[in-house]
Amino acid sequence: MRSTHLPTIARVRLLAGALGERAAWWRTRFTEEAARRALEMLFPQTSVRAALESVTEAARRAHDAQLGPRAFHLFRLPIHLEDRLAGWLAKPEARLDWPPMQQDALCAELERTGSKGAGAAEGPLCLGKPARLDHEAAFKELAGVYVQAARAGVRVIPYFED
């Protein structure tokens, strides 16, 4: 995976995490306005990263509860990807904007980032082998899957497994 894909991974993770909060797929509010104000006071330079890390942990737990900790998904990547992503996020040039507050705006932004998803079925959805995660196209597909699920009013858990 080229490092040029890291901003896409971070952005899709942040937007899907925020979408999960708005759709009540996990019970956190790290990307909403009150949390934004609090995080900006506590972490003025890294508030978006703090929100990303917090919503990632909540979403990881929700996904793992359905899949178990052996499957890979947007919020639990193979260690080489997690390490690269953490390294990129630690750099001063790593820029992430706060996600939109409204669910429709989140969906629209994910649609601009992504591609058509595999469907809006409720529950776990296998998207192939973990090797696909080395390619940006997998994250664009994930963006589309989360949008379709939110618009259909279902909770989808896309994953990659051998």
Describe this structure in words.
By secondary structure, this protein is mostly helical. It has one domain. The chain contains six helices and two strands; from the N terminus they run αααααβαβ. It has a two-stranded parallel sheet with strand order 1-2. The longest helix is centred in the middle third of the chain and has 21 residues. It is globular and about 40 Å long. The relative contact order is 0.20. The mean pLDDT is 92.
Quick overview:
By secondary structure, the protein is mainly alpha-helical. It has helices at residues 6-22, 33-42, 47-67, 79-89, 103-113, 136-152, and strands at 123-126, 156-159.
* Termini gap: 19 Å
Number of spatially distinct domains: 1
Global structural class: mainly alpha
Q: Biggest β-sheet: count, sense, barrel? A: 2 strands, parallel
Write down the overall mean pLDDT. Answer: 92
Helix content: 40-55%
Shape estimate: globular
Alpha plus pi helix count: 6
Strands side by side in the biggest sheet: 1-2
Radius of gyration: 15 Å
Quote the beta fraction: under 5%
Low-confidence stretches: none
Order of helices and strands: HHHHHEHE
Tell how many strands the DSSP assignment holds. Answer: 2
